[in-house]
Structures are given as C-alpha cells and as structure tokens.
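User: Please predict the structure of the protein below. I'd like the answer in structure-token form so I can feed it into my own downstream comparison script.

Assistant: Understood. Taking the following sequence of 297 residues as input:
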Amino acid sequence: MLEEQLVGLAFSVAATLGGGWWGLRRLAQARHLLDTPTSKIRSAAQGYAEFYGVLAAQAGTAIAGPLTGKPCLWWRYSIEEYQSDDKTRSWRPIESGSSEAWLLLDDGTGQCLINPRGAEVRPATREVWRGNLRHPRGPQPAGWAGLFSAGKNYRYSEERLHAGQPLYAIGDFRSSGGGRQGLDLATAQSAVIRQWKGDFAGLLQRFDGDGNGQLDEQEWNRVRLAAQLEAEDRHRQQSVQPARHHMAAPQASQPFILSCAGEDELARSFYWQAAAGACLCLGGALATAWLLGVGTF
C-alpha cells in the first residue's frame, strides 16, 4: 500500500511540475509571437524578427522525402513498430529524423536564408500510412490498396515543406553586405592581428625591421596600424557586396518557429496548450494534496 501511495505521489508531483512548466512556456511563447511586429526582409532591424513570406526553391538543390521520395524543400519522418503482448498494445518509435537543409523565404522585398536547426517546424503537408517493411518502398498506396492497412506492423509518418507554400518565421535575423553592417574597428583590428599571429613567421618577415626575431613596441605599433587599415579595407569590400539575410535560432529563450500557419493561429494553439498545462498542474496539485492528506508516510 505504501509503495502504491509513493508511486501515485511521484506521478502527481510530476504532473504538477510538468503541467506548470508547459503552461508557462506556451504562454510566454504566445506573448512573444503577438508582441513581435511583422517586418519586411529588406528593412528589418537586426535581432529578433518576424516575417511572412513564401518558400522558394534554391538553384542547384534537389531534396526528396526519405520515405516517399517526393521532392520538397524540408522533411521530417518517423517510423513506428506495432508491439503487443497479453497486456498491452502500442506503437513503439524505432527511427526518426529531420532535414537540415536551409530554407529560402521570399516576402516580395527580399529573400532570407533560414537555418532550421533548433526550430519548431510546423509543416502543412503530412502523410501517415502503414506497411510490412521497416523502410517503405515509396509513398502511401493509392486507391483500394491504401485502404487495407490493418494488420501491418509498421506505421510511417512524413512531413514536408514545399516550394510556393506560405511560411511564418520568427527567430534571430542577421544581415551582411549591402553596407548594412557597422564597423567595430577595435574588434575587427583584433581579429586581423589574431589571424596574422597564426603565421608568426610571416608576421616577423613583414614587421621585424631589425631582424632580431622579436617585435619591439615600435614594431608592434606598426602591426596595429597595418591591422587597422586592413580591417577598414575588408569592411569596405564587404559593404559593396549584395545584402545577404539569414535567420537562425536565437541565443536567448525566445521561440524559433517556422510554420505554414499564421501568427494568430499559432498563438491560439499555444493558449489552448497553456490552458491544458494549467489544468494538468491543478489536477496534479489536488492529487498531491489528497495523497499527502490521506496517506501514511
């Protein structure tokens, strides 16, 4: 009896903590989505940003879903195996994976490359079917063949993003080239000096005027001046290059989301999930209080 009460108490405490954490997390994410203004790629400020646009194909890239073989821009898949015994029956995950190919978002004012690593991706296209092979030989059978899936031991799921689909993206936005980056001269100068120190023999050959194998204070001043001029020249060359925009996972705890659904639909879904987390937390707290009240520990 005591062991059963301890197990029940452990589950109730876990439900309280897990539900509370999930509810607060989803609530904070919904607020981030609603509080972040939608920007245009061409004029967006650097940092955390939100875009609406259309997925575009990139030249020279050919990606296909690993289970269906259908062409796409991004994929995620899972394979489950059906297991049963005298007491339980369930689908057990045995394999999964997702694409790390960069995506190209076009909002009409510019294009932004997106690194999907670490993102919560919500595609509009999802296929689920069953079969008797661990790895299916192509997509789900069409017509009557696809109806008779009972008794098959494997269940497959594949999600994809395709060119031309709308995409909502929120994450860390950075630009390079196009004269958009300011010059932090001290940082750029230090970077040039560190690079030169990697070839110290070459550094001595350029700046060791007296040939004693060392750099004195006057020679180091020449190194610093040359590095400053080099940093300024590199910045000028980079500024005349066409602007390139990138989005990736933010450093802070802000959400990084790529979704075919819009902001309002996402926020509404997050609010419902936050409410479910709050209910789980409340139910777990009530169960914990009841077990502590009636149990004998």
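That's the full token string. The radius of gyration is 28 Å.
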